[in-house]
Amino acid sequence: MTTAKDIMHSGAECVREHETLAEAARIMKERDVGALPICGENQKLLGIITDRDIVLRCVADGLDPARTTAGQLALGRPLVVEADEDVEQVLQVMEEHRIRRLPVINHPEHKLVGMISEADIARGLPQERVAEFVSAVCAERT
């Protein structure tokens, strides 16, 4: 059985909840990523922020990314999977919610241990399953 841990990239760097969106953007640029988990104390996952969130929910709304914190944009509880979850369950969650990145946590501490992105799926799964995933996530909403 292939698990989330088998395909995730470990060492995902968090932006802390009190860090600014300008700092989050700098980290994204340095790491060449489009999303960062938002973490509180002890690597506890609080949310996820994307480059799109910074543009649409901060800059486009006239907020200052040098003053707005990552925690201010963390809405609700993020979708996550546990490291030992079967990869088919992981894909089902991503397809159902049409998301391209998914934090991976350990249990029971709820601490971030990695992230799964479209690129991880493309590298870790057979081509036909990747095609199904992309089709499901990118399909037009009706």
Task: Write up what this structure looks like.
The chain is α/β, with parallel strands linked by helices. The chain contains seven helices and seven strands. Strands 1-7-6-5 form a four-stranded mixed beta sheet. The protein has a three-stranded mixed beta sheet with strand order 2-3-4. Helix 2 links the parallel strand 2 and strand 3. Helix 5 runs parallel beside helix 7. The chain is globular, with a radius of gyration of 15 Å. The N and C termini lie far apart (34 Å). The mean pLDDT is 90. Keywords: CBS domain.
Briefly say what this structure is:
The chain has 142 residues and is α/β, with parallel strands linked by helices. It contains seven helices and seven strands.
Helical proportion, percent range? 40-55%
The largest sheet is: 4 strands, mixed
- Structural category is alpha/beta
**Percentage of residues in DSSP E strands:** 15-25%
Q: Any low-confidence stretches, pLDDT <50, length ≥5? A: none
Number of helices: 7
Summarize the helix and strand pattern as letters.
HEEHEEHHEHEEHH
Mean pLDDT across the residues is 90
Strand order of the largest sheet: 1-7-6-5
3D shape: globular
Intertermini distance: 34 Å
Number of strands: 7
Radius of gyration: 15 Å
